[in-house]
Amino acid sequence: MFGGIPGDRYGRRNSLRITAVCMCSPHWDAPSRSLVLIPFARFMGGLAIGASSVLGPMYIAEIAPAKQRGRLVGFFQFNIVFGIPAGIFFQLPHRDHGIWRPGMALELGIAAAPAVLFLVLLFAIPESPRWLAKRGRVQEAEQVLRSTGDQNYQEDLRQILTSVG
């Protein structure tokens, strides 16, 4: 709901940008000791991660050439599965039972670094050709397909237009 609906309405790329901003929520709660701001920022970050878990594979599947589609979507999923235990591993030496401790601001703030990089890189990618075609922006969809190196971009565009009706 928090990924698919905005992705259909505003585009995959723009929705991913919004999720990237929300993923930066560790920056919001890093300097805070607020018992309101910390859970709110964590909640926003969780929604963003959930939304990007829907939007990322959707975007990749819609823009990747058919020969590379499965590999790229699989790589996205692998990174999610690898990232969860990596995050836990880096937190283990710092565990204690207090709500706040010295150095926690750095720990929370550093988690936003990949999200900031993700946001910056999202300004270098095109919109999904399928979403563009659904919006009647067929010329732009064709340009995106050509820019991805799709050898059969005309046939792929025809298939997209047929599927979006």
Describe the structure.
73% of the residues lie in helices and 0% in strands. It is mostly helical. The longest helix is centred in the N-terminal third of the chain and has 27 residues, at 37-63. It starts with a helix and ends with a helix. The protein has ten helices and no strands. It has helices at 4-10, 12-23, 25-29, 37-63, 66-91, 104-110, 113-121, 129-134, 138-147, 153-164. The mean pLDDT is 83. The protein has two domains: 4-125, MFS general substrate transporter like domains (Growth Hormone, Chain: A); 127-165.
CATH architecture level-2 label of the largest domain: Up-down Bundle
Query: Which parts are unreliable, with pLDDT below 50 for 5 consecutive residues or more?
Result: none
CATH topology of the largest domain: Growth Hormone, Chain: A
Biggest sheet descriptor = none
- The overall average pLDDT, rounded, is 83
Distance between the termini: 23 Å
Q: Name the quaternary structure.
A: single chain
Based on the model shown, name its key terms.
165 residues; mainly alpha; Growth Hormone, Chain: A; 2 domains; 73% helix
Short description:
The chain is an all-alpha fold and 165 residues long.
Layout of helices and strands:
Layout: H1 4-10, H2 12-23, H3 25-29, H4 37-63, H5 66-91, H6 104-110, H7 113-121, H8 129-134, H9 138-147, H10 153-164
